[in-house]
Amino acid sequence: MDSTRLTPTAVAADPELADWRVLLGRLSTRFATGSFVTGARLVAAITEIAEELDHHPDLDLRYPHLTVTTVSHDVGHLTGRDRELARRVSAAARSMDVSAVPAEVSTLEVALDVTDADRVRPFWAAVLGLQAGADGDLADPAGRIAPLWFQQMDEPRTARNRFHLDITVPHDVAEQRVADALAAGGTLVSDERAPSWWVLADAEGNEVCVCTWQDREDF
Description:
about 220 residues, 5-stranded antiparallel beta sheet, alpha+beta, single chain, 5 helices, about 30% helix
């Protein structure tokens, strides 16, 4: 199968991937199944496709939707295999009159500002039951708990919170998400790195970054 690297820019420009969005290096979408039975039927169809292609996505079936995520695990990034799988999954959903709602998908990360990541990482891995990857970030092998990454600080941070959240959203909904958060009482801390990310804060100064893949092709 096609192992050519698939970039976020290529995904965004591909009409056959209109149902899908790139979140932290993965292709993701959600299908509005409307019922658990329809969702189970779509899961069965996806299972057949995955077995045929020998390429298996992550499926999260809820009432009333199904979230699908895929990446080529053996190489650690998106490839033509993910494109073919996504294209076939979308076709199966259309055949069941199930609509995709990709604007609803997002991925949450937690960031901790540290001066010595190696010193604190074992504690957080143990207390949260996470595993360290090659980059030092901590992740849940089952994909149920938000990953934790460590932001290197030159000096201890005392004036601001050391924890913040990173919410990665589809690139075409990010500006509206920022606008909604500001309208809900938030403040803009920085848009210097937009559209890669915006830094926002609530009324008490607690921070969150609204992130996309744009200008960050590695994501």
